Amino acid sequence: MSSLERKLEKLNLLIERLRNEASAGALLIVEGEKDVESLKAIGVENNNIIAFKSLRKNFYDLVDEISSANREVILLVDFDRRGRELMERLAKILEEIGVKVNAFFWKNFHDLLNADVKDIEGLVTYLENLRRKVEKQFSYSICKISD
């Protein structure tokens, strides 16, 4: 199995796990509507997703809304410096008020995507390109074997 195939397999497993968490009632926090659309495109339920920049609420109103939901929160903000700072700030505040914060998915997407993708919005395109590369690699292997 090639490194591209392994990466694709790990991403698919991570996405499947994210779908399961969302289906089980976890609340996903993303930055914008395009992030919501990206998650929807990979099969994550969008009734469990809050795009906080689209809410037109201040930071503390968002925290109040999240804390009243009384369920696990998965943070999926951008992977850049600003996103990391936002994630740390949100996680700290939410944990202080007793909300269970899950940063597992952010960390794993960040590690797997190696700065190739800077946000959740870019995930779908990245996956499509990775699948094409794996298929092309597979086709090339088949051609070499049959030569």
Entry summary:
This protein has a single domain, classed as Dna Topoisomerase Vi A Subunit, Chain: A, domain 2 (3-Layer(aba) Sandwich).
Count of discrete alpha- or pi-helical segments spanning 4 or more residues: 6
Beta-strand proportion: 5-15%
CATH topological fold name: Dna Topoisomerase Vi A Subunit, Chain: A, domain 2
CATH architecture: 3-Layer(aba) Sandwich
Q: How many angstroms does the end-to-end distance come to? A: 21 Å
Which structural class matches the secondary elements?
A: alpha/beta
Annotation, overall tally of beta strands: 4
**Poorly predicted spans:** none
Compute the CA-based radius of gyration: 17 Å
Q: Sheet bearing the most strands, described? A: 4 strands, parallel
Structure, explained:
62% of the residues lie in helices and 8% in strands. The chain is α/β, with parallel strands linked by helices and 147 residues long. It has a single domain, classed as Dna Topoisomerase Vi A Subunit, Chain: A, domain 2. Strands 2-1-3-4 form a 4-stranded parallel β-sheet, sandwiched between helices. Helix 1 packs antiparallel against helix 6 (123-146). The longest helix has 24 residues, at 123-146. It is elongated and about 50 Å long.
